[in-house]
Amino acid sequence: YLMSQYGGGAFLIVYLIAVIGICSFILMSKLAFGRAARTDLPQAFEKIGEQLGRPVSKFWRFSVGYLGVFNSWGLSCVYAIVMGWTLCYAVMGGVNLLVKIPVSLSQDTFHLFTASFGYQLFWVTCCILICMAIMMRGVQKGIERLCSILTPVLFVLLIFLSVWLSCTMDIGRVFDALSHPDWGRFGLTAHGIDYPVFCEAILATLGQSFGSLSLGLGIIFVY
Question: pTM of the entire structure?
């Protein structure tokens, strides 16, 4: 969606520059920070400070440490809703294989689904209960064991989706958009820089690069 909005290959080029030139270093630093601390985020700054012989102020430890906790909590609220949508669609898709008259999973279906607070609450509650059951088994027997299964499944689904889309849509137009970057839609024109469009595109690119590597406060640190 963002590639189609900001010039196809133009967006992809700047995105890769951001991932390789900025986000990869942040990713490595967060992983190193987590491996060195081996504790929760609020206590991590104090522990690293003790290892380096440089005490960290209580204000910095409290503000940054707990900000990461609240950030993860806020993200979990968003993801719980999306997980509810996904679980609902998975169940509806499974039911469609068993009934003679399948339900149409169209845009109208999604609008009807999201318009019902109670319906969404039901599926979100199901997802939260599933997550609770996984987390009650602990990090190794619960989260790590499930990730070792679901991560390969994710890549298999991505490959399947790529093949399926290649067979059902004009894939040539996609490669044409990638191989012919439209820098004008990214805000870089022959007459100069269209700053409102350029700044909006840069923010969208950086946001996507940070989001795709999960570089929010404390997420990669905990992982």
Answer: 0.73
